[in-house]
Amino acid sequence: MSPASNWPGIAAERFANQCREIIAPFLDEYGFRCVRDHVTPNSASLSFANGDRYLALSLSFDPRDAPHACRVILGEGSLEMPECDWNGIGLWRLVDEPRTNPVEIKGIDDVDSALAEVLMQLQQAAPDFLRGDVRRFRAARVEQNKHREPYTIWALDDAGKYVSRPDPASIVLKERYSKP
């Protein structure tokens, strides 16, 4: 495989390395430590935690995830699904207007500018969360979750037809994370 055809893998590895070298030391100043570090040929994800607060950074080059950009989630609680899908918010929700789109990553060289943007947004939009003041974060999370429907489970009924019902775990998580 030529380097040109494997640029997503090279970019994913660069993303992970740059997170370790630039983002991790910044987060370390706030007591966040790396708790998850996973790189595949087409993606990378790193998570940092301080108590029950976490910050998860990820990048995927799966064609179904286009446009490719760095995803940054701030959360409070478990990093495991389905809870993390309810207890976290995108960093962009804390960024003051006008919000800009994340730096799209179309090649290896775009990784550095994307992570520079992430670092700037963390410094400007999330210092309270990083220090442990979660009031603004929780308000944004409530806003995100209050109108959101719980997950739906589809299963066959006695007649062999698919019927839907709300996922019980999702109902509990919606209740928990839709309040300040």
Descriptive tags:
180 residues; 6 helices; two-stranded antiparallel sheet; alpha+beta; 7 strands; five-stranded antiparallel beta sheet; globular
Written description of the protein model:
α1 runs parallel beside α3. The protein has 6 helices and 7 strands. 38% of the residues lie in helices and 24% in strands. The chain has 180 residues and is an alpha+beta fold. The model has no long low-confidence stretch (mean pLDDT 91). It is globular and about 55 Å long. The longest helix is centred in the N-terminal third of the chain and has 22 residues. The strands form 2 sheets. Strands 1-2-3-4-5 form a 5-stranded antiparallel beta sheet. Strands 6-7 form a two-stranded antiparallel sheet. It has one domain.
- Our Rg estimate from Cα atoms comes to 18 Å
Order of helices and strands: HEEEEHEHHHEEH
Mean pLDDT: 91
Q: How many helices in DSSP terms?
A: 6
Oligomeric grouping of the chains: single chain
**Strand order in the largest sheet:** 1-2-3-4-5
- How would you describe the shape? globular
Task: Offer a quick outline of the entry.
The protein has 180 residues and is an alpha+beta fold. Helix content is 38%, strand content 24%.
Topology of this protein?
Layout: H1 7-28, E1 33-40, E2 43-50, E3 53-60, E4 71-76, H2 83-87, E5 88-90, H3 110-125, H4 127-131, H5 135-145, E6 152-156, E7 162-166, H6 168-177
Antiparallel strand pairs: 1-2, 2-3, 3-4, 4-5, 6-7
Helix pairs in contact: 1-3
